[in-house]
């Protein structure tokens, strides 16, 4: 993603990299640390519509109250690289599985995600 942003004109100094996440929940936890360290008052979250819907739920339960967060979905027809119908189908089912996994106790959820992503 860093190389993609740089190739589209974003200065490297404006890119903050977080490499410790293994799912959307930990990605938000680590992003909050960057937001706090940088003392940002406004943050724009950009992702696919399905992912943003799930991420918005995570953020709504736990975000810095002094930070304004806006959401910008990437239209499937304008994604780069292009999204195939199979990828769209897969992502929709992946997001439903992710929603269902939140019903698990947190310790079981953490173990499962790390096992699936080979980080156990």
UniProtKB/TrEMBL annotation:
Sequence ranges assigned to domain DUF218 in this UniProt record: 1-89
CDD domains noted in UniProt: YdcF-like
InterPro entries found in the cross-reference section: Cell_Envelope_Assoc, DUF218, Rossmann-like_a/b/a_fold
Domain of life: Bacteria
Name this polypeptide is given: YdcF family protein
Natural source organism: Spartinivicinus poritis
Taxonomic lineage from the root: Bacteria, Pseudomonadati, Pseudomonadota, Gammaproteobacteria, Oceanospirillales
């Amino acid at each position: 993603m860093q190389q993609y942003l740089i190739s589209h004109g974003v200065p490297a100094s404006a890119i903050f990299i977080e490499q410790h996440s293994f799912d959307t929940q930990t990605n938000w936890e680590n992003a909050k640390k960057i937001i706090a360290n940088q003392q940002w008052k406004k943050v724009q979250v950009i992702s696919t519509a399905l992912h943003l819907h799930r991420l918005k739920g995570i953020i709504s339960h736990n975000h810095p109250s002094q930070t304004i967060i806006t959401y910008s979905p990437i239209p499937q027809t304008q994604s780069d690289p292009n999204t195939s119908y199979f990828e769209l189908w897969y992502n929709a089912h992946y997001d439903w599985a992710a929603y269902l996994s939140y019903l698990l106790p947190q310790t079981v959820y953490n173990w499962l995600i790390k096992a699936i992503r080979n980080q156990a």
